[in-house]
């Protein structure tokens, strides 16, 4: 259910854009969808995750700037900034506190040695960085239609690819058994 709520704003944004061909109206719909997402998360879980707060805050800043200045370039940078913040967070939390952020988030779901958590964290950090870079490359080298489509399908496929790579790495390392896959 949470994944559906998480992807709903970008799905609605994409549908709105392709129906109206108005990036500014679609941006407004995206911001409304993100606000509803925050409200639903609070109603269902009695709290809003830091990840959701970061995404919502950055979306308000960049989406609001897109609407205020009537310039879609702010919107282009939104996913890149979000991805790069997550990339830096994964590395900096460990560097400054000695704690592994990925382990803090997922450590209750799976028990792994610290060196494996470190590799996973660095892999995800690299993945977030590449995802942000790819977003900007697509935004500035392809049409708006391609970029909007990429936001929906590309973002989902990249995340799915990260998860598959992580699962294969853990399975090959003997950290997962067949019943966990």
TrEMBL record:
Pfam family, one: IspA
Entries under InterPro entries matching the protein: YciB
UniProt keyword Electron transport, yes or no: no
N-terminal signal peptide: none
One cellular component term from this protein's GO annotations in UniProt: plasma membrane
Assigned keywords, A-Z: Cell membrane, Membrane, Transmembrane, Transmembrane helix
Residues that span the membrane, as ranges: 23-44, 51-69, 81-102, 123-142, 148-171
Protein name: Intracellular septation protein A
Source organism of this protein record: marine metagenome
